[in-house]
User: Fold this.
Amino acid sequence: MSSMKRVDGFRAGWGVCAVSMGCVLGALAPVARADGRATDAYLDETRARWEQVARQIWDTPELGLNETRSAAALVEVLEKEGFQVTRGIGGEATAFVATVGTGAPVVALLAEYDALPGLSQAAGQPKKQVVAEGSPGHGCGHNLLGTASVAAAIAANRERIARKLPGTIQLFGTPAEEIGFGKTFMIRAGAFKKTDVVLSWHPDDQTRVTNRTRLAATSVNVEFFGRAAHAAASPWLGRSAFDALVLFDHAISLMREHIKPTARMHRLMRDGGSAPNIIADHALGEYWLRDATGESVNEMLGRLKKAAEGAGLATETRAKVSLVFSLREPVPNDALNAVVQRELDRVGPPRFDDADQHFAKAMQKELGFEEVGLATKVMPYTQHNGGTASSDIGEVSAAVPLAELNVATRPLGTAAHHWAQTACAAHPLGYKGMGVAAKVLAASAIDVITEPALIKSAHDELVVQTKGKPYVSPLPPDAKPVAPTASH
Ligand SMILES: [Zn+2]
Assistant:
């Protein structure tokens, strides 16, 4: 997600717990493997169609909560396949859920489709080449993400019908991942209430089932309200909201020495007044707090609020702290991850050709990275391979058992939130990664439908991980989804 997330390059922990996962996989071994292959064949036959959809979304990059055309492109495909679509969930017009089938089990896939600001880049170019200065781009590959999930849901549904299988398939269109909260509002609106398990994926530079220990994160707007005055004629009449924000920011800077090494704090000034010769009556900064657990983030948030009150007191202004988003650390689910790992091992990594590798090495050379090309292997499953990114997928994982797959869609060592991913998200190598993701997710969905014991294992694990506590939304009751650009 977000400028906060998908900071790749954190690869700690590989090889730590492969043994325990081996046991989980061993328990799954007797299940027939043929289940996924009809979905593979369908996805191979229809490959050109999915590449066209992914390119269409790539060509019209839209920021969070404004993904009108991107969501419509996916909805159109789903409706043609008989999915019933409900648009607008949790106050988010570009959120939707597409449902097909009846009864239990209910298997869901997640489609993201938002782009990032300022990451416009020419398709398939190994060098930075902006198409439209300052325009958004698919620098996180969500055009591939959303399309593969939709393709997987359709492939699984065709298989469900052909084999007269029970159950329901849901495809959640989840907007505004990059601005931190799309799914959180959908959960609060009850969208996932009937869902048994969630299968997801994200473009990456590696191919693996991920069990990342992403950071919990909370974002707040800190505002100060003062009194305007002519800065030269009558400054004594004014009370500067900008002064308050500067003082508050200094307090936060001092606080950095007294937070845990795992914590992160970021900030941006959104409003500091309109002119130097007018005492600012309003100032606004956006502050992000992150740490390994939501508890630690909440503790830091309490201190941040005191600093805001203190700055307001010192400057005779009024402070207001409003939550923008809050994401907990993901709840890992080995039982469900094992299902996806089994299908990933069967499908195998993307089959990149010489042209793909040549392109990848040219891009690595351009970036000053080691010219090692693209990942050609499936990484072994390990636990707690962590990073310092965050995602609203963490909220979903605390409400419903969730598995997440990564598939290589960019050269090794390159990161998301970069023009390199924008370029690769409209290149044959990106489409190959998308194809693998769709096959693995479709087959995993059929596995879950045909093996109800897998759902019970996944649920049992969620109960253990969450100590049986029901999901509670981090959002205050009056919180509404508002894009940052629209709120300031
Ligand atoms: Zn992303």
